[in-house]
Write a structure and sequence with these properties.
Two copies of one chain form a homodimer. By secondary structure, the first copy, chain A, is an alpha/beta fold. In chain A, about 50% of the residues lie in helices and about 10% in strands.
């Protein structure tokens, strides 16, 4: 059986056409997901393997993607560490007791994901049974982004509490991030053992740091995660707003580095280096329409990549809830019909 | 009388030491401001010249800054255009009827700021009477940032509605931004006529755009504002998250270009060009403490600037409400004691 083009692209091997998948390809923009959410909360879907399996497969049935991604949430490992949370309608995640001090950090625990998150691993095995040859992506958050949720208690605009702990008690910060690196490494290795083909590390909010702070406070911890999974599964390193720290993200690790829409993909790839793959970088807002502009920008991305092996087409961030599913379908087909033109 | 060092720095003339002021130097981190806010709403302070004067002067009395900045809000010109709003506790600004269509755009009006915003101009004249030689900064929002508030109805994390109008109905977008450029130009010229010495244009959220979109959707409108004020008052062009569009911001205009903390100030200045000044770029979170790290980072900024004329010390964004006022005082003194070491 041929190696799927998604896995070939991660290895920077030539492909018949550009592989494509979408962050949040399972989610609120799909009617079948919204129907399920009428009956189940987000956490219920994350916790019940049959529901997580169903939601993971929904986009695979409708959209010509080259990979599935496990349906789950970045915050899932926080609860067994000692940080329970819930999702508040219209406000996103909310932790019951955010980390406020060194003592709070030291109360957190490393846990066995094969026990505490067995439901996720069951979902992975079920999904793999349904997917056939289509690769499955597992994922987890990077220490900076997970620490920001742990400390802020939810989304933040300025990461004031996060940076306040980081600058104010660097020892506690490093203990927290070292623990998160352990937890995420354990979790990703368990996901790989359960069957995921590739892992993506989401450092969604790390663009709030400059290069100097990234090297001091984030890089060593993220690097340990990529070292832990090296040789076990290929890896993708994702962030947004990272135009000033692309070299630092690359140095932290990842066979493929994600790039958002703020920087042209060829400029980003040159800075990252051609010994890595790149993933991205369409602005998710373009999928709201009009279709002509969306496809023009796809052409621009593919022109800039110019057939160089190692590009995975994706958005710069997740699909927006108001996106018409037809646009996503059209986009995947268009990438396949015109991608890897240099081959 | 000597020209104040703040004005000298804008002209890239040698100064005795580095001038410093702070975005949101008047505001919630000051006890005297919070005391006033017990009795008056934010909009009442903006609308009553005596209150706006008092709040503008509060930091000048306590902190060794080289300029005052008019206390007001970016959204103030929206109401006389036809977009009333209020500030909702804990949620920020909220427009009553956000712009949703081309028809909504065409219902907006250009207005005479000497009538509709006479209270702001009265405040400026009063403040100037109190300030003596200390320069006063006037300000307004740039079209992209103001359009984002007009369309989203408040703060946004992804600017989905804003970009949806921008991509989906470019003609309506350009009409909206052309009107905003007229409104802001009128307003800044009226502020200059009333006595402000310098104007700052805030494009706070423009870092959501890439260079290509900035050139198409934002630059022409922002440029018209800087052309309108040219020769009337020196200008500062501010944005955050602009590491991928610094050259574009420069091309849009401004005697001085603001730089946030995500990019080293010497790297940014080289890209902007030494025929412009720069303002920034300390991370506001550093002011939460510890003081040693804050001052180390001040040293880093000043080392990178290396005494080149044309640097105004500031933060990368506004002072955070939880900032101890003593840290702000210490920071201003420290900049003055060690700044412009190359002179």
């Amino acid at each position: 059986m041929d190696t799927p083009r998604f896995l070939k692209a991660i290895r920077r091997e030539p492909v018949d056409t550009t592989p494509v998948w979408f962050m949040r390809q399972a989610g609120r923009y799909m009617a079948e997901y919204r129907a399920l959410r009428q009956r189940y909360s987000l956490l219920e879907i994350c916790r019940q393997p049959d529901l997580a399996t169903e939601v993971t497969l929904q986009p695979v049935r409708r959209i010509d993607v080259d990979a599935a991604i496990l349906f789950s949430d970045l915050l899932v490992p926080l609860e067994p560490m000692g940080l329970p949370f819930d999702f508040i309608k219209g406000e996103g995640p909310q932790l019951e007791h955010p980390v406020q001090s060194a003592a709070d950090v030291d109360a957190l625990v490393r846990f066995e994901p094969r026990d505490a998150l067995a439901h996720v691993l069951t979902a992975i095995r079920q999904i793999k049974g349904e997917l056939g040859a289509l690769p499955l992506i597992g994922f987890a958050g990077a220490p900076f982004t997970l620490a920001s949720y742990a400390i802020e208690g939810g989304h933040s605009n300025n990461f004031a509490r996060t940076k306040s702990l980081m600058y104010g008690d660097p020892a506690a910060w490093h203990r927290l991030c070292a623990l998160l690196a352990d937890v995420v490494s354990d979790y990703l290795l368990a996901q790989i053992e359960a069957g995921v083909d590739v892992v993506q590390v989401f450092d969604s909010w790390v663009g709030a740091l400059n290069a100097s702070d990234y090297r001091e406070f984030a890089l060593p911890h993220t690097q340990r995660i990529f070292e832990a999974v090296r040789g076990r599964a290929p890896s993708i390193h994702f962030g947004t707003g990272t135009g000033s720290i692309l070299e630092e993200l690359r140095d932290a690790g990842g066979d493929v580095v994600g790039v958002d829409w703020r920087i042209p993909i060829d400029v980003a790839w040159t800075r990252i280096g051609f010994d890595r793959g790149v993933q991205g970088n369409l602005d998710p807002t373009l999928l709201l329409g009009p279709v002509e502009r969306m496809l023009q920008q796809v052409d621009d991305v593919l022109d800039r990549v110019d057939g160089r092996p190692g590009h995975i087409f994706n958005l710069g961030h997740g699909i927006l809830p108001s996106t018409p599913v037809e646009h996503v379908q059209m986009l995947a087909q268009y990438v396949h019909s015109t991608g890897a033109r240099g081959q």
